[in-house]
UniProtKB/TrEMBL annotation:
This is ABC transporter ATP-binding protein. The keyword Repeat applies. It comes from the Bacteria. InterPro entries: AAA+_ATPase, ABC_carbohydrate_import_ATPase, ABC_transporter-like_ATP-bd, ABC_transporter-like_CS, P-loop_NTPase. One of its GO terms (molecular function) is ATP binding. Residues 20-251, 282-525 form the ABC transporter domain.
Amino acid sequence: MSDLAPGHPPAPAPRGPLALELRGVSREFGAVTALRDVSLRVSPGTVHAVLGENGAGKSTLCNIVYGALPPTRGEMVRFGQSYAPGSPAHALAGGVAMVHQHFSLLPNLSVRDNLLLGAWTQSARRRTLRAVDRARDSFGVEVDLDAHVGAMSLGARQQVEIVKALLREPELVLFDEPTAVLSATEIDRFLAISTALARAGTAVVLVTHKLAEVRAVSDEFTVLRHGSVAGSGRVAEASSDDIIDMIMGRQVAELDGVLAATLGVADPTAASTGRTPGPVVLTVDGLTVRDEAGAVRVDDVDLELRAGEIVGVAGVEGNGQSELVAAISGSLPVTAGRVVLGDREITDLEPGDRNALGLAVIPEDRHHEAIIGDLGITENLLLDRLDEFRSPRGLDRKAMDREAARLMQEYDVRAAGPRARLSTLSGGNQQKVVLARELSRDSLQCVVAAEPTRGLDLGAVDAVVTRLREAADGGAGVLVVSSELPELFALCDRILVAYRGSIHGQVHVADPDAHDAVARLMMGEPA
């Protein structure tokens, strides 16, 4: 196994053949080295966590094990036999399955039809459905075979993806950032499934950046940094501080309070920001939103946001937070009430018109709402500013690329150049592009950020937090909707709690009993 950081004893030698062993595996893409001399060992019946920042090589490692990429050098061994899958189909046939961060289900089909794809005969269909029943009974995976995938929550879709991975009863399952888009309840359900898989003898590789999850279910860990192993060992024998030092390359004492809270190594209360709240920049007055079936999703919500303050919205997922953000941004029609930006009512304005007046929106689902993956960085940054670059000959592409390059440098977007397709960037760099576009508006008054750090590595979390604070320091009001309570407590001045579509109460984070008050409000109890 690779060398440990000082003070980290090596994991004990496994008994019996290893479910997976990587020996000096490297992967190069031209002049770029994604993995360099990586070695790790995974025993049957254990959960092995792989940690590291975006771009550290975690997904590349998973894709090599799953047969989607060949290694440039090195070898893999499974149960004492050489292992070199030529494709994901070969990996599946060899007992290796993978659940990707971005799901592969067909949204226009039912769950049953998705699971039965490729099962052409009646006997094959029966075998598949029996395997679904085994996954339910053995591992607690819950799926509704009649549900339409396009109407399911992200957590429910992940359950289907897990069932797909378990249909062939694999001996090794790879989970690539499985909790990045899940609510707290859904995360707990996933962790229970991981534990059940390991107890049944399956080897589990869990790619994550959340230490609380690592400590909850993992037996061993390996940290990647810049494509190399920065450390490894048994989770029970490693301190959180040491693991973070491996991931970040800097001591925990140097980390921002929000970053430490997100990691689960600190429980900070928001320090005084020194900002004095200014005039009201966002007013939501009696806002009500009904869905297509007539059900109330946002119920008579009132809120005010002032210049220079950061206000959080907490709540169990599904209590109207997503619909509230959509109504403020203009992507969801309002049934009743009004939205006012500064002194201008914007209730009936299109999203682009709201942006032009100084409303910046960082959506919850960046892949479907914030970026166009097949377009370049330049286009994603400047689509709503094209008039600035028009000339008698059309668009001045060189000027656009110069402006995009300037924003890339300012927001530390790491890519080959401004014309690189956004789909080729890591999640953290994609989010930086969204931040650069939204926060660079000249007339910025208000920022609405929904789950802005979800699925991001530690460095990207740091960048997002810094930019939101800078926006508030610059005089904008910042509204942050997040399922990460430690993040809200470390970042916000006050927290509003959503419950059944309403704002159930407000808590100032400096109050001595603020944590308990928020918890009670989230459960529907009075503060």
